Amino acid sequence: DRDTDKKRIEELMEENMVLEIAQKQSMNESAHLGWELEQLSKSTDLADSEKSFVFELNECASSRILKLEKDNQSLQNTIQELRDASLTSRESSLKFVELEKENQQLSKKIEKLQNQIEKEKQSNQDLETLSEELIKDKEQLQVVMETLKADKDREIKDLKQENDHL
Fold it and tell me: What is the pTM assigned to this prediction?
């Protein structure tokens, strides 16, 4: 956008210079026509129709000068608007660069948090596995304890019977 604006400004400046040159030429023509008008008015042989023709030419040149001045002013305004737009574009570009940097920083933070989440998930899975293993071990120990208790009860019963028998 800035390159396009710069090119447009350059084109408008060139066009402005062309119009200024045309304006100077028109002014020179007007001055020359004014001089011719003076020369012709000095001449006593000049007819009224020739005077009106010169007057019309002078008015035409004046109106052309006014038109060129308006065009020049319009181009100056356009150039100023493009300069203002270019400044706004530059400010927007700077803000965009700042936002892009901030976005990159936030992306890095998000990536770190995602890594931490993955580690926590893995840790939770490891704890679940360990918990399941401990529950199995507990169940096995309970079975062993019940077996030992039953063996002990049986042995006590046997010993009591033997004791009663003795």
Answer: 0.39
